[in-house]
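Task: complex structure prediction.
Instruction: return structure tokens for all chains below.
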Amino acid sequence: MATTRTEPQTAPPAPPRATQERTWLWVTLMLAAVALFARFGHPMQIAWLRNLLIIFGSLLIEAMPFVALGAAVSALIEVFVPPSSFARMAALPRSLQIPAAALAGMAFPVCECGSVPVGRRLARKGLSPAAAVTFMLAAPIVNPVVIASTFVAYRGRDSQWLMVGGRFVLGMIVAMCVGWVIGARAPGELLRGAAVTDETDDHDESRGRRFITHLSGDLVFMARFLIVGGLVAATIQTFVPASIANHLASLPVLSIVAMMALAFFLSLCSESDAFVAASFTAFGPSAQLAFLVFGPMMDMKLGALYVGTFSKGFFRTVLIVVAAVTLVACLWMQVIWG
Amino acid sequence: MSAVTVEATRARWSTMRVAIGLVLLGWAVMFWTLFLTGRTYLYLSSRTAWLVPMGAVIMSIAAIGRLWTARTEKEEPLESRTAWALGVIALPVVLVLALPPSALGAFSAGKRSTYAGSAIGATARDVTGPLDFVDIGAAQSFPTAMQELEARAGQPITLEGFVTTDASAPPDEILLTRYIVTCCVADATVAQVRIVGLPPGNYPTDEWLEVTGAVYPVGREVLVAADTVQQIPVPSQPYLTP
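Output:
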């Protein structure tokens, strides 16, 4: 019996296994060292470190449940929706697919962290990449929860309806523009080539086992990028004062650029960013709108997720198109409304 | 020979699946701990606290499911790259569980934007009710809210907040600060009020105080003339939700 378990055919070569075992040991030791420092090193008595660790923790504690929800929806799509459904949608003209995908975002009430795994899954499953990306970018802005939070954040202000309506319309337009630029790219061109951890799908397995494989695979895949992005965002929040942008508030074009840059570095959830945008009272409505449209489509943690999930040029394409369309639209708004 | 063949194809524990299951289990334990101990409010607002039990349930399903299905017929070793990635994913869990409970302090008060409310005094709030930091924050941002506060000048107010150092202030004055959080601490904005006429004593930065006194709007600022000042522990919900 014992010999069958150690048959040469089934055992991997000795050196890699030894390396792998050592890696696992190093990782465990590193985590143990971090735990000991966190517990007995009094890190919370160092003001900047306490600030950084609390913001880092809070970004993840808020974002991970959304990623988990997105991963669960993504796994359900993979297991229960037949590829033929997406093939039928992909056969429609792109001029119809892209607006339909943007509108479909209204039915998915999660923030941007949850929409990335779903967008990725839709593209893998056969929906045209243009439509999948449009959906992924539009959903965090046009869903009812975000509309309601924007409404509440601007309650009692003259610009309330301008912000609520402007965010919805501009969010749709920007998402569709990115979809249009992605155009006829094949899923293979859009998604990153690297194999996805743990995602060896066996269609002979039961649906329950396949669901768990995809759920855990998506979680592990997304979480590492989210954590890296969250750490960078928390570091910037700790050391760079938000008031740094206030100096640019009265300058016509730079005020919009400054608010977009602030949205990028703060990496807020789209369900709460309206309250922060509303606190920048020195900025006009057009600059605040730029913050509200740009942030849910492009920020530090999303950047990390995009780089990990999509092909090399994707991050650059989204950054350029989202920034350009948001800037031009908000400049027009600035001319009209100030 | 046939016994050997059967044995060779028998399912065995996949190291990678077990490792993934354990890391996801760590996240589930972290969410359940936050939920059951009330430490959620050190990171999230009361409005988004529901995310924690939701995360706990989904992570538990993923972790238990992964461990339950961790026996495979083909070998799945844990590669070095995956091991490091799992270490990164486990890092926040280790930090949150090992760190002593702590709330955002005075360090970032000067780096965050000031709470500007949502014209709260003008619309949705009960302006006859007890005054708090949210009313003061709104008053310092909106003329309508300030007018309503001016109408209540001299009325008693009780505030809980932490001390923020103001080097230019006389010894009997401090800034009392509270963060207003909408979703998570990353979106915290600052509400501050100047406390004047403090009883003699030492008021170190970051110490939590309960101040009772009378509120006086002066120009664009709001002052509280202190009657009693009491040191208090960090509240279970250190951030306010508008």
